[in-house]
Amino acid sequence: MLPVDDLGEPVVLDQPARVVSLVPSITEAVAVSVPSALIGATDYCTHPSTLDVSRVGGSKYPDVDKVMALNPDLVIANSEENRAEDVDRLRANGIQVWVTEAPKTIPMALKSLRRFFGTAWDLEPDWLRQAENLWRETKPARLTAVIPVWRRPWVVVGRDTFATDVLRRLGIENVYASDDERYPRPSLQELNDRRPDLVILPDEPYVFTHEDGPESFPGLPYVLVNGRHLTWYGPSLVEARESLERALDYGQG
């Protein structure tokens, strides 16, 4: 029986030697674990910082012609970030595509990565075991928070999101965790009316700064955090827990 990707589609993975990744988190994971195999990535694949591969455009709208010109034996895509028509076009041209599902929790993400690396290269990366151990503990809830990821319009982290699970394990409850939307678009007035204990401002995809806190959330404590540590899954999870705990503890001071 052929192995299947996160969506149940069969993919032949036999030690792929020419990999193009359209998923920044997995780009980092492959670059760290099997560096010789990675030949292409998107413009938004910023880690490792020394990454030197061919670029194929944006994550949501990659240049499919550039991808095919690299003659990959595997392309890694994501069901939420990448368009089905692009995946279909790659497959129609004989290119294998492993489609991942957007993880809702840390265990879901690490399970998916464990299966991928085990299937493709019979590999269990050291960082994966470390991340599993580091994130096993869940702290008791101690604070509520709103987590904006964009402004004009305001967009916040909502239900069934990786960031919500990351913060929950650190004892931070997302006040929009039970919202109907995964990324609600409340008004700024509504955000302030929720009166969270803390406003968490990441530096991606929108680059929030110290000016955004007092300006937009007067009277509410706020903290700036590394957005990659909040939303990326893979090797970054090894350093993410300590980084976020340090930032969040500072934000309460």
Automatic annotation (TrEMBL):
The lineage of its organism: Bacteria, Bacillati, Actinomycetota, Actinomycetes, Pseudonocardiales. This is Substrate-binding family protein. Residues 18-253 form the Fe/B12 periplasmic-binding domain. It comes from the Bacteria. InterPro entries: ABC_Transporter_SBP (IPR050902), ABC_transptr_periplasmic_BD (IPR002491), Vit_B12_bind_prot (IPR054828). Signal peptide: none annotated. Keywords: Signal. Belongs to the bacterial solute-binding protein 8 family. PROSITE patterns: FE_B12_PBP.
